[in-house]
Structure prediction request, 181 residues.
Amino acid sequence: MTLHSDVAELLAGAGIVDVDVDDAVADEHVRGSAYQRVVSVTASSRSRDRDRAIVATILRDPHEMGSKTAVVALVDKIAMKVTGPAEFRQWSAELLPEIDQLKTEGWREFIRRRIHDWLFYLSIKDGHVPTPVELAQVTDWMQRLLAEESTSPAVLVLLAESGNRKKTRNIAKNRTGFFTV
Prediction:
């Protein structure tokens, strides 16, 4: 497959007709924007059947940073749609072979960590109260997201006591009224 045929296939599959394929191939910014639109259409679909193929196609792009960004956006959008951690674990497991095709280990690891973070988030949403050790295994980004969004007093107290960053601890503290940390 060529970049031109990959971009054309992604746009056609998403029903996006107002992006010039030649412009997208010539300009990584136009292509990145097109990928974000493809990801939005893909995530809004009820069917997850084409997700792996779409991710594989996006990740063939020679501009790995742009393709990684699009895949992370898809991971984020799907994590917010699934019914729980089991569904997300199954969905993300199907993507891992495609993610492993990225040449840059740091980008492969970034996506893997994002998936891990969302699994953690979804398990908490499902009622799990993490230990300080489990909390330490997620990124600062996820800890802050939990501090801002969690409705579990136990999780907020844990974040107020054990969050990696002062800002995260303060957000959690303010949301719980917990001031004796």
